[in-house]
Design brief:
Rossmann fold; 2 domains; Cytochrome-c3 Hydrogenase, Chain A, domain 2; two-stranded antiparallel sheet; globular; alpha/beta; 5-stranded parallel β-sheet
């Protein structure tokens, strides 16, 4: 066990524990118990989060403590140009998980979907929360932000303030800033070509570091895990080239896919519903973007952690990658090695998230395309070449 780190986190949690409860009449642990979550269930959940954050299992009690103290840190959650899907996926599940229940009871000082206030009162609540908790609150933003001369495409409230202005003001005094979902992380569908509203990522409207938690929507565990990482450490996690936490987005979908063995064996679904589909073959030829996408979907899954798109029979659409609406489509056709508009100009479809080793990844990606193209001639089950 890393004794120094354990002691450092223990000290930080003790300091947070000294902060006053923002909702004095209830605690996260008591509310979870009311919802039927036993202490055993809670500790099992804490163990899974500990593993996801790549900490030794001996740190599980610290992670549990961090979750219980999450109501000591105020959170301001802003909605920009989006569908509210990230909030809905986290908070509106028909069988709430511990992750979503925790978000029910943390101190959400401002959240347009959840709060009862409207009109001038909502505007006042936002301004009051920023001033009251200046330098202490965590800012979470959902949605792309119409920017610059296009900022008027998103105005908020009776004062006519733009979403860009609200985001800048909230970011200025935040202790930490999280972009929740692909729209806030990269601009999302709003920023897709031709981007008529000039939507941009949250990181474009502030000079402060923004931790991106992309996905359409992102896993609730990635949202809660990012929050708990900040509570545990008080610092930013290790980030990749696109400011995504490496503990969540450090592995390609392709590398942790349950169908990877079929890819290596040259066994592909040629069209939906064929024998390959029934046998769980690789979905690359029907558009799976797993080789180009960094996320932990296969571990976290969706729908109360029961399944995920590839398990259900549809390929990954690359929703946690920058510009995926433009670069990953058509969603049911393979990328192969065609060129598209990315930050890696001219390097083709197989240049991926980490700038270090781009050449190697490109060669690997071309190999993927070639492997897929020749597989039907090299499949040993066909008995021919």
């Amino acid at each position: 066990m890393n004794t120094e780190l354990f002691e450092k986190i223990t000290y930080r949690l003790k300091e947070i524990e000294k902060l006053p409860k923002l909702e004095s009449e209830k605690t996260i642990s008591s509310e979870l118990e009311k919802k039927g979550v036993t202490r055993r269930d809670f500790m099992k959940w804490a163990g899974s989060i500990t593993a996801m954050l790549m900490l030794p299992m001996s740190f599980t009690p610290l992670v549990a403590k961090a979750a219980e103290l999450a109501d000591r840190l105020p959170i301001i959650w802003l909605h920009m140009a989006e569908c509210t899907g990230c909030s809905e996926s986290l908070l509106r599940t028909d069988s709430p998980t511990i992750d979503s229940l925790i978000f029910d009871y943390i101190s959400l000082e401002y959240h347009e979907t959840l709060m009862a206030a409207a009109g001038w009162q909502a505007e006042y609540n936002l301004e009051h929360a920023i001033q009251k908790h200046k330098g202490q609150y965590i800012l979470m933003v959902e949605g792309g932000i119409p920017y610059g001369e296009n900022a008027h495409f998103l105005t908020v409230g009776g004062q006519g303030k733009t979403g860009e202005e609200n985001a800048k003001e909230a970011a200025e005094h935040a202790a930490a800033i999280f972009a929740i979902g692909t729209c806030s992380s990269y601009g999302g569908v709003q920023a897709a070509i031709p981007n008529p509203t000039g939507a941009v990522a949250l990181s474009k409207v502030t000079n402060k570091t923004v931790i991106n938690v992309p996905g359409c929507p992102p896993s609730e565990k990635n949202i809660v895990g990012t929050l708990l990482h900040y509570i545990l450490y008080g610092t930013l996690p290790a980030l990749d080239a696109y400011n995504r936490p490496k503990w969540a987005y450090g592995t390609r979908i392709h590398d942790a896919c349950e169908r990877r063995g079929h890819f290596d064996a040259g066994e592909f679904v040629e069209e939906f519903g064929d024998e390959g589909a029934k046998n769980g073959y690789c979905l690359y030829k029907v558009g799976c973007k797993g080789p180009y996408t960094f996320n932990n979907c296969s571990k976290n899954k969706f729908n109360s952690h029961t399944s995920w798109p590839i398990q259900a029979g549809h390929g990954c659409i690359g929703c946690s990658e920058p510009g995926f609406w433009d670069t990953m489509g058509p969603f049911e056709e393979p990328v192969a090695n065609r060129l598209y508009d990315t930050v890696f100009k001219g390097l083709g479809a197989d240049a991926t998230a980490d700038k270090i080793g781009v050449g190697l990844l490109t060669v690997t990606g071309i190999g993927i395309a070639v492997h897929a193209a020749i597989s039907k001639y090299k499949n040993p089950k066909d008995g021919q070449e």
